[in-house]
Amino acid sequence: MGSKVALVTGGTGGIGTSLCRELAQQGFTVVAGYNSGGKHEKAQAWQAAQVKDGFNIDVAYGDVSDPDSSEACVNAILERHGSIDVLVNNAGITRDSTFRKMTLDQWDEVMNANLRSVFNMTRLCIQPMMDSKWGRVINISSVNGQKGQFGQTNYAAAKAGMHGFTKSLAQEVASKGVTVNTVSPGYVLTAMVAAIGDEVLQKIASTIPVGRLGQPEEIANAVAFLASERAGFITGSNLAINGGQHMF
Ligand code: CAA
């Protein structure tokens, strides 16, 4: 039997790249889902850079907020690799704005990319996982889904929604060898976080007891563990990785 196949949505992004590399390191066949606004050359350049670093990672295009595009993406992966055993719902965007200024577009874009996407992708992967009696769904949420964040009513609502999704689906598929968990990163050094203005970011960083932002690898290590055989008894849980910024 070949190695298990892991799909990481948003796989070419900041945390996504680390997730892909760590899962590859752990022996999974890894596919990085990408949207990149349809800029395929960008994903190909990303893939070439991974090869240069010794990581053989496939890439597959799809807009996870769109059901048809999600289906085309999953079908292409199944054709090439035969199964998707681990689904990491990692794709996500921000459209930060105080609520009083937030447009319906900013609300919808974030809900669709961050939460509807989880429905679209998981729906396509869950039945085959149940049929094969093994599977892992790992949803990448955020500390801000737990504690809320000034300027993120849309993002925090979508990320909080993931928890209810995880806990419900975990109950539905537990008897079939499929686990469903959430990982909630805090502020991790990626382009998404770097886009916050310096002043605001410094203020936020000062509230992190560990005294620094997280590294993408620190999220990837936990995701690789949840994807592994050793984590078979962990389901419906949320693993907070935020340097102590929010504890409960
Ligand atoms: N807490 C309290 N008050 C705040 C504040 C804060 N964090 N930030 C701004 N304010 C205040 C300002 O001082 C100002 O007050 P006055 O009107 O009294 O002068 C007022 O709010 C500004 O309100 P505006 O509606 O005009 O806000 P703005 O347009 O200037 O900026 C914002 C709003 C774009 C949301 C900005 O605050 C911001 O960038 N915040 C950071 C949001 C953030 O943390 N995003 C995380 C992105 S990373 C990520 O999401 C990854 C992950 O999972 C962790």
From TrEMBL:
Gene3D superfamilies: NAD(P)-binding Rossmann-like Domain
EC top class, as a word: oxidoreductase
A GO MF label: acetoacetyl-CoA reductase activity
GO cellular component entries: cytoplasm
Family matches, as SMART domains: PKS_KR
Residues in Ketoreductase domain copies: 4-219
Entry keyword set: Oxidoreductase
Enzyme Commission code: 1.1.1.36
Record flagged with keyword Oxidoreductase: yes
One annotated GO biological process: monocarboxylic acid metabolic process
Family assignment from sequence similarity: Belongs to the short-chain dehydrogenases/reductases (SDR) family.
Name of the protein in question: Acetoacetyl-CoA reductase
Source organism of this protein record: Litorivicinus lipolyticus
Upper classification of the organism: Bacteria, Pseudomonadati, Pseudomonadota, Gammaproteobacteria, Oceanospirillales
